[in-house]
Amino acid sequence: MLLLLLFISGCASKPGLTQDDNYSIVVISPKGQVQNIPVQLKWNSNKVVVQNLLMETTFILSDLRTSENPPNESALANSTVLLKAQFPQSRVFNLNIDGRVQDFNLDSIEIEVEGPHQGRVILNETQTLQGIPDSNLKPTFDEFMNMLRTSTSEDF
Fold first, then answer.
1. 9 falls in which pLDDT band (50, 70, 90)?
2. Number of domains composing the chain
3. Has residue 22 been placed in a domain?
4. Most CB atoms within 10 A, among 1, 30, 61, 79?
5. 4 Cβ contact partners less than 8 Å away, ≥ 6 residues apart
6. What domain of life does the native source organism fall in (predicted)?
């Protein structure tokens, strides 16, 4: 009964990304060119900004749906930006997909931050799902990018 109460109250463990994971920004141009930009968090990075982004991605991962509308050619007319987490070792994630909790051994997760399918999630570069729509994702990601630009322009 206690476990049920914890799960219902939201205290159960949720799938999430951590600061220890390796991140990159993946930009896909309308012509299909892919640019993979590794993210280097410096010692003086604003931890609050990083935690906010990780919290938003955890929200998106908390309830996934089978993607009913795969990207089409007209949707690719705009650039797409993904946040990619690469894990040094496979990690087990308990993901709620279409109302069923399933275990996945994951090497990578990509979340579409900008583009026609914001919140789209790609597991291990093979399985595409749709995460919860989150209006806070883009502003939080923009704040994260501003922090990265600021921290890389400073010389210590």
1. very low
2. 1
3. yes
4. 61
5. none
6. Bacteria
